Amino acid sequence: MAIRAVRRFGEGLRRTLVLAALTAPLPVVGVTVGWFGALFASTWTDDMHAPLIVRGLVTAGQVLAVLLWVAGALWMTHALTSRPLAEAARRRARRWLGLELEVAYGGIAPVTRMATGYWWDGREYHKSEREARRRAVMNARFHDPQVRWDGLWALVAGVTVFPVTALPPVAAGVGVWLAGSGRTVIGVLILVLSLVAGASAGRIFRPVAVRFLGPNAGTRLRELETLQADLTQTQAAELERIERGLHDGAQARLVAMGMSMQAAERMVDADPEAAKAILAEARASSRAALEELRSLVRGINPPVLVERGLVDAVRALALDVPVEVTVHAAVPARPERPVESAMYFAVAELLTNVAKHAHATCVLVDLGYADRTLTASVTDDGVGGVASPAAVPRSSGAGGSSLAGGSSSAGGSSLAGGSSSAGGSSPAAAGSGLLGIARRMAAFGGRLEIDSPVGGPTRATVSVPCVL
Amino acid sequence: MRVVIAEDLFLLRDGLVRLVQSYGHEVVAAVDSGPATLDALLKERPDVAVVDVRLPPTFSDEGLQAALAARREIPGLPVLILSQHVEQLYAGELLADARGGVGYQLKDRVLDADQFMDALTRVAAGGTALDPAVVAKLLGRPRRADPLATLTDRERSVLALMAEGISNTAIAARLFLSEGAISKYTTTIFAKLNLHPDDDTNRRVRAVLTYLNATNADA
């Protein structure tokens, strides 16, 4: 009992010290710069004799100068320390208080070349790609909205958490010093009081953390904006790919067919045998054009999905995957088409990943609907160790993960090249596909969760809120 | 033969009608929607029907459903399903009643008139005519303890053609082998797959398809 009390007491003290350290930089730098700045500024007017009004103006100028210095110092400190300190504070909040304060930092924005020849870094245009990339990195470090929120946390915590948590240790030091210099009673008293206060000073952390460390309305809005930007970009990439597929594939073949038919027409009287050969060739290319169109269509909107809905489409998908897949489904009705499509491509991508990376022998796909949430989980007995994609980051470039989640293994090459690296068997390639799923799901307020211990089994679950 | 044709695209419907007529058969009904298909199948009881999977009014798999419903009413009613894309799932549903008289082909197979009409005749005779694309998928399906792995390449190609529903004579012609050689191959294949050899082409094809259609053929 007593041991536990002592241990709790010690833990309280430790937390107080850690919090003081985590919130120190801004107030310490601010006060130090302010203090020494004021001292330095006061030397300007050491032996000044002037009318009162002039002295008043000069003093105002001095104050302004000091304020500027403090602001500059705070700004630099914020840029260098706010994010790591806020992240450390969030980790402590999770460990000590069980607070899940999930925020998303925008990664380094993709750099895209515009039709004008300028490079867009997500905020502004630049003349060269190198400059745009450099700026994108800078923006990610200094202009990320979440970093600003972290700065606000550092500021608020600097004037709330820091004084409360830093006072007890300072007081304890004063107590020890007093006791050492002969005033034992008062010294010990102050020491004891400061220790008692220190044990519970850490409690100020929770209310401040809840208000300033977690996601806020602004964050959610920004996430949505980010999503929108992402979707716009992936959609553009998608359209481009469809267009290219039609342009270089079916369209070109149809032109060639027209030409061979014309040639056959010319030769039909002179050389009927050659004309026949050309016509046979034309028929072969019409077949190839059809094949191409088929795989394109599969990537845009798989026919089975249109004809049968999600459950049967997933069943059809399972038949085409070169691993043994069992499908369990308990879905009362067809969800909305966009949700259905997103779900389908998510499952397709997950199954493709399993087939490619997991070395699994059997896979279970489970479709269910409960509490207004449609879920699909893909469980495999493979090697595991799949990293979860971060929560909807901004960092994938155009042509990264496509709108249509992944490649359905059916129908050969699919339109939707889930992972950007060709044939990528690297974890990164698998990851980008997962990122695509996560992003696509997030557009519908859904999520992707991955539970994959090394050695398996891996269970990936996509869930989307919807009313059936 | 008396043929019913169900296809919603006018050009293709018209082309199919002409094609079937040019081979000397009679088209008793040419329809363009799911309900009309079911009516025509039940009323006319054709020798064979050519049905598009996707038909109005819903543009889901109405044609397939109509064909399956008609076969429930009239067991073994010969139906050749046409589609822009082939799905193992649909093939499995068509083969599920194990009565034969079903075909499932990609629409562009119509371009090869002789082969298409050959498939149609096979279906009308109670045989099967599966698209090579479906057969390839069936053959590629994973199984526990896969006896297919023990087949030689030549045996595999014979098995694939057999699964499409082609007779020994035709397989021999396609692979440039004698009929005797083909029946030797089929005997070996059946032994390797633990299937009962059968002289009747249709029953034999059905055995193969049942085998391929089982998700896990635990041999």
Structural Rg of chain B: 17 Å
What percentage of the residues of chain B does DSSP assign to strands (E)? Answer: 5-15%
CATH fourth-tier homologous superfamily of the largest domain in chain A? Histidine kinase-like ATPase, C-terminal domain
Please tell me what the overall shape of chain B is: globular
The N- to C-terminal Cα distance of chain B equals: 41 Å
Average of the residue pLDDT scores of chain A: 81
- Strand order within the widest sheet of chain A? 4-5-6-8-7
Q: What does the largest sheet of chain B look like?
A: 6 strands, parallel
CATH structural class of the largest domain in chain A: Alpha Beta
User: Please, what is the average pLDDT of chain B?
Assistant: 88
Protein name (chain A): histidine kinase
Catalytic activity (chain A): ATP + protein L-histidine = ADP + protein N-phospho-L-histidine
InterPro entries (chain A): HATPase_C_sf, HATPase_dom, Sensor_HK_TwoCompSys, Sig_transdc_His_kin_sub3_dim/P
EC number (chain A): 2.7.13.3
What secondary-structure arrangement, pairings included, does this model have?
The complex is a heterodimer of chains A (468) and B (219).
Chain A: H1 2-23, H2 25-43, H3 52-97, E1 112-113, E2 119-120, E3 125-126, H4 129-142, H5 145-159, H6 161-180, H7 184-201, H8 205-212, H9 217-267, H10 272-300, H11 303-308, H12 310-320, E4 324-330, H13 337-358, E5 362-370, E6 373-380, H14 427-443, E7 447-451, E8 458-465
Parallel strand pairs in A: 4-5
Antiparallel strand pairs in A: 1-2, 2-3, 5-6, 6-8, 7-8
Helix pairs in contact in A: 1-6, 1-7, 2-3, 3-5, 5-8, 6-7, 9-10, 9-14, 12-13, 13-14
Chain B: E1 2-6, H1 10-22, E2 26-31, H2 34-44, E3 48-52, H3 62-73, E4 79-83, H4 88-95, E5 102-106, H5 113-124, E6 128-130, H6 132-139, H7 153-164, H8 168-175, H9 179-192, H10 201-213
Parallel strand pairs in B: 1-2, 1-3, 3-4, 4-5, 5-6
